[in-house]
Amino acid sequence: MGVPAEGETIQIHSYKHNGQIHRIWEETTVLKGTKTVIIGGNDRTTVTESDGRTWITREPAIVYFHSQYWFNIIGMLREDGIHYYCNLSSPFVYDEEALKYIDYDLDIKVFPDMTYILLDEDEYEEHRKLMGYPEVIDKILKANIEKLTDMIHQRKGPFAADFIDKWYEMYLTYRKF
Predict the structure, then answer these.
(1) Which residue positions are annotated as catalytic (predicted)?
(2) Can you state the percent helix, strand and coil of the chain, rounding each to 5?
């Protein structure tokens, strides 16, 4: 598994457990790339859904992927503050094509006041049965929900007060206008 270079533009590919593509983000600028952590930034990037529909993100975002965590975090910079969208997922892999992960349906939406809600539990249960998620995956995901909510409560990692702002400032140094 390679490591993308700082300043490099990469795609992000999200898959489902059955191997089918779920979603592709066309352009994300790598702000930090190691074997353990990839932090990127994007703004108004094209997203392609599995059915071919496309849409464009509305605001700047900082994305955080960790090779040891079964989640990834998107910090979106909006007028009323930073909103986070956390995907429960496999740890990332990176190859020459893209940064890749498996999306496991469950999401946590975190608001600027750091309150949060768990989303898509029905979708998770449906897909768990349909795609046959192994019991070990279910246990790993539940443990990572706990890890993620602990990080939110403790304001650790991407939830730390200055994390998103710091990385957004770096993103602006690469941004093409």
Answers:
(1) 23 (proton donor)
(2) 25, 40, 30
Q: Is 87 among the annotated ligand-binding positions?
A: yes
How is residue 102 written in tokens?
Answer: 């498996």
Q: Is 155 a catalytic residue?
A: no
Look up residue 9 and give its two tokens: 């533009």
Which residue out of 23, 58, 78, 155 is catalytically annotated? 23
Can you name the residues that pair with 74 across neighbouring β-strands?
63, 85
Task: Give the list of residues 6+ apart from residue 112 with CB closer than 8 angstroms, or none.
Answer: 78, 80, 81, 82, 83
Coil, strand or helix at 128: helix
Ligand-binding annotation for 138, yes or no, is no
How does pLDDT run along the chain (177 residues), one tens digit per residue?
689 999 999 999 999 999 999 999 999 999 999 999 999 999 999 999 999 999 999 999 999 999 999 999 999 999 999 999 999 999 999 998 999 999 999 999 999 999 999 999 999 999 999 999 999 999 999 999 999 999 999 999 999 999 999 999 999 999 765
72: exposed, middle or buried (C-beta count within 10 Å: 0-12, 13-18, 19+)?
Answer: buried
Q: Distance (Å, rounded) from C-alpha 45 to C-alpha 68? A: 27
Answer yes or no: is 80 a known binding residue.
no
Model's pTM, two decimal places?
Answer: 0.96
